Amino acid sequence: MPKKKKSTIQDIADQLGVSKSLVSFVLNGKSKEKRISDSMAKKVLEVAKRMNYRPNYLAKSLRTGRSQTIALIIADISNPFFAKMARFMEIEASKYEYKVIFANSDEDKEKFTAELSVLKNRQVDGFILIPPIGSEKELAALQKQKLPFVVVDRVFKNIDCPTVIINNYQAGYQATQRLIENDRRNIAILNVNNKLYTMQQRVKGYHDALMENGIATSPVLVKHLKFSHDKKLIMKAIKEIISAGADGLLFTTGKLTILGIECLMELGISIPEDISVISFDDMDAYRVTRTPISAIVQPLEQMSKEAITILMSLIEENTVAVENKNRVLDVDFVYRASCV
Amino acid sequence: MPKKKKSTIQDIADQLGVSKSLVSFVLNGKSKEKRISDSMAKKVLEVAKRMNYRPNYLAKSLRTGRSQTIALIIADISNPFFAKMARFMEIEASKYEYKVIFANSDEDKEKFTAELSVLKNRQVDGFILIPPIGSEKELAALQKQKLPFVVVDRVFKNIDCPTVIINNYQAGYQATQRLIENDRRNIAILNVNNKLYTMQQRVKGYHDALMENGIATSPVLVKHLKFSHDKKLIMKAIKEIISAGADGLLFTTGKLTILGIECLMELGISIPEDISVISFDDMDAYRVTRTPISAIVQPLEQMSKEAITILMSLIEENTVAVENKNRVLDVDFVYRASCV
DNA sequence: TTTTACTGCTAAAACGATTTAGCCATTTTC
DNA sequence: GAAAATGGCTAAATCGTTTTAGCAGTAAAA
Q1: Both A196 and A138 in a single domain?
Q2: Which contiguous run of DSSP H or E holds residue A223?
């Protein structure tokens, strides 16, 4: 069985007895520009169809220097927050005929660096990054290499690059304000990754809301966890804030919340009777918890859209409008029974 | 500012005054085989490092015919079931130095076909597919084109291709059996995508369990929905089975379950007092629902691992061992308070 | 009639790697 | 001492495109 070879531009040219340049021109819609006769153009198109011609993007990319591929490096695609973002990114990228390769860093700087390196080799045209703590050097290197990239959901000190984040301070402030309005005075906050500026801002918003309402802040009510996946750590923190008399609780990530709620259930603590709860990120699960959980809704679709738009402008125009360079988006809130 | 060009194999060759063939041999670890002197090999490596040489994978792939990339076409990466699978696939693929490009079909045959087409053009070495209903023709075409692919989570009539699925019949059977053991006699099943063989098997397992326990099956307790994301449809179905006196309920997907539980809550129906519940797929949410939900746990990691293994063997050896061609994996069960 | 312009096309270089075939000098074998 | 083997390297083809420069031939302008 003669393995039927895939047809190339040369095959089409041979069929018609013309040069492959001509075929290439026609196939790229440059017939007019390159003054190919209509009759010839038609023939080329016909033959291409008949031979079921499919352009080889490797060759195309090698020649043009564009791979029409972007890389998305997130912490973990199995985290719904990132998965949703990935989905929106893919939708948006496909509008530009771009495909996306994804990689997971697990918030590990070494992994992140390694992934970045192999993706560079693969000649992706740009990167959407959610870099782990301590990635400043990598980002600086990307800048020096003039590789297009956009940082999402995070901000890094001393790195002046395109970013898309939410107004974390505002979100933390308003959520706290809401808990205060619910007559809560011992409001705790459960946080993770506190070395990230964006996380610090969430906590700052929380602090300022308390302060401006004349409520003293208590260090024992502010918990910074090392990981969000370790239930034991979360249980310990929750026990501590409960002992300290917490009657309100703000979770700074959805992952923390799921485990946190589980702990509260196990401890027999009622929401909102014993403790009022609000969480960053709106998870599907919040609608089916014993008490539906209120959430700070990040505009994931908009974030993704803007990030891709910026990246495409970097790739195509090699620049981005100043007013778009550092986007700070407003969040939305959905209040459910967990805080009333 | 002279845009510092990326260094190529030629640059290294020029530096040392040798041929690029030599450089290529050394860089690919063929020094011994190609009898390059140790001293020269060392020099090449040094210069490569000094120039920060990074191979261009486009060029490499064009020449070798291997892109070291596989495509993953699923319904929707934002669905945790697929997202987890994607994560495991990525982990496994990276062991073979493969990257994965993902695409979403939304269970739409046209989208699926379109994605398949562009990914073929991009010269991916193989596909992991979760094809929508009615994809037989596409799969047959892939076979005729001798493109390596593995179908996961689904089976298609008349398509004899490598697959990895779970034992859906067994899973449906055992879950139903468990509900029966809980003294439930009016057991309903909420299903979706019933044109899929794998879904039919879940229902068949349900039916047979009832039959073998001498319980009459009632058509009104068997609901086949068109979509899993339409809450209204689900609400309607649930109201109907409740009116019909259902005291047990088996959901055939996690997505259905989340919305289904929400409906049950809204209707003020208690789990497991009024109705005992088991669900396919183990979602994070099940641990924080009012009543924790029992689940049929699909071995996602194993499925992903086996799928990648098969695909790699197809890519590399152009064949797969018969005993591995059609894998049927056993599921696990986690029983929580929703069925006691 | 010569020049200029246009029309329709082609040849060949280039992208950055891999790989085959083979060259030249030295060493080994008989 | 001639033939064969070995060691260390290179030239050139190749993968499938895009793109630049330019070549005939005819038509319009001078």
Answers
A1: no
A2: strand A222-225
Q: Is any atom of nucleic acid chain C found less than 7 Å from the CB of residue B56?
A: yes
Residue numbers 269-298 of A with CB closer than 7 A to any atom of strand D:
none
pLDDT of the residue at A1: 42
Q: What is the mean pLDDT of residues A20-30?
A: 96
The CATH number assigned to the domain holding A47 equals: 1.10.260.40
Q: CB < 7 Å to strand D — which of 61-100 in chain A?
A: 62-64
Residue B149 phi, psi (nearest 5): -155, 155
Please give the pLDDT value at position B2: 45
Q: Quote the domain boundaries for residue A33.
A: 9-55
Contact by Cβ (8 Å): A170, A208: no
Q: Give a yes or no: residue B319 inside a domain.
A: yes
C3 C1' to A33 CA distance, Å: 26
Give the CA-to-C1' distance from B24 to D5 in angstroms.
Answer: 26
My answer on whether A190 and A218 are in the same domain is yes
Can you point out the beta strands (E) in chain B? Answer: 69-74, 99-104, 126-129, 149-152, 163-166, 187-192, 222-225, 248-251, 276-280, 294-297, 326-329, 332-334
Residues B156, B104 within the same domain: yes
Residues B293 and B305 in one domain: no
Q: pLDDT of B65-116, one tens digit each? A: 999 999 999 999 999 999 999 999 999 999 999 999 999 999 999 999 999 9
Residues 6+ apart with CB under 8 A from A240: A220, A223
Residue with tokens 């510092």: B4
**Which chain B positions have a beta carbon within 8 Å of A69's beta carbon?**
101, 122
Domain presence at residue B277 = yes
Which residues is B74 bridged to in the sheet?
A: B104
In the structure encoding, which two tokens stand for residue B187, read together? 């057991």
Average pLDDT over residues A169-177: 98
pLDDT lower than 70: segments of chain B: 1-5
